[in-house]
Amino acid sequence: MKVKKEIIITEQDSNKRIDRYLTDNYPHISRNQWQERIKNGNVLVNEKPVRNSYILKTNDIITFYYYKKPEPEVNHHFKIIFEDDDLLIIDKPPNLPVHPSGNYKKNTLYTLLKEQYNYEYCHPINRIDRETSGLILFGKNPEIIRNISKIFLTNQISKIYYTIVFGKFTKHQILEGYIGKHIHSKVIKRQMFINKNSLMDFLKLYKNNYSDNTESFTIFYNNHNYIYRYAKTEFIPEKIKTIEHPLYNEITLIKVKLYTGRTHQIRATLKDSGFPIVGDKIYGLNENYFLKFLDDTINNRDYQILLLNRCALHCYEMSFVHPGTKKLISIKSSLPEDFQTLLK
User: Fold this and answer.
1) pLDDT tens digits for 211-243?
2) Category of 148 on φ-ψ map: left (φ > 0), alpha (ψ -120 to 50) or beta
């Protein structure tokens, strides 16, 4: 289906070349591809064709068309492993989005619960990515959602994950630092982890408002503000396996405990500590795998190098005091089949 896209340029994005602006905001399309589209008149500004060198002005309207793909198929085989009047805990398979987003509208866990199981009200408390498997908690009424959300915000819930990384991860360690947007990545949603031990070297590169023992700070780069927030994660290696691979000789199964809840915390921390997650197209071996995935050019050879066709991340255990009954809830999810197969 052909879809029309219109963008109104804000003052913040004025004075940029149109080809650079489009590449920065839609990085799954290369700059050369955008330049070709602009040259051929497939991108208009104020309903007129322009050159690639056109400098955008405030309130300019960029118009282009794209073809919307059919909604992708997903894995519907989830399990309800705990339920009472207030809460619902699901064991989610990989390749199932939690809530509607992007190309996924109906094929989501949220939609399946509402339409197939007739839940009048259910809202995800913790959100895990489409490719991540394991436990996800839903609230069944507004009051419980408010109460359980407070537990998450104050870190009164214990969450344990398992992941598989490239490399020989041998040391039980707690990594502390800061997480925020990766300012040099082509992938808009990619985060970066700055280890506390190397923080001062990072801060020297940018104007910032950091102060000792702060929970967050802002850097100023390329006319934008980027916020970095404190993150703490514990990593416990459990199994190392030798593999045949063009880049690595081993993979490691790691148990992970979160002490904070930042976006992509586990993935970014491991990637920027030298241990990319198996199957991760963004934080794995090279983010270009994600751009190829978006462009439908990723192939079987790519997946052979990634080792899995999804990010090897699994929410294994969740423990918390039920805000209604005041009883301890502790739920586990077995390691998924693809993890077990890879580690044999």
Assistant:
1) 877 899 999 998 789 999 999 999 999 999 999
2) alpha
- 3-state SS class at 18: helix
DSSP characters for 270-296?
HHTTT-PBTT-TTTSS-THHHHHHHTT
pTM of the model: 0.83
CA-to-CA distance for 265 and 253, rounded, in angstroms?
A: 17
What is the pLDDT of the chain when averaged over all its residues? 92
Q: Which two tokens stand for residue 230?
A: 């404190």
Q: Set out the domains of the chain in order of their start, with CATH numbers.
A: 2-67 (3.10.290.10), 79-154+315-343 (3.30.2350.10), 164-311 (no CATH)
Question: How far apart (Å, rounded) are the C-alpha atoms in residues 159 and 319?
Answer: 7
- Residue in the block written with tokens 């990637």: 271
Query: Buried b vs exposed e over 263-289: b needs ≥16 C-beta within 10 Å?
Result: ebbbbbbbbbbebbbbbbbbbbbebeb
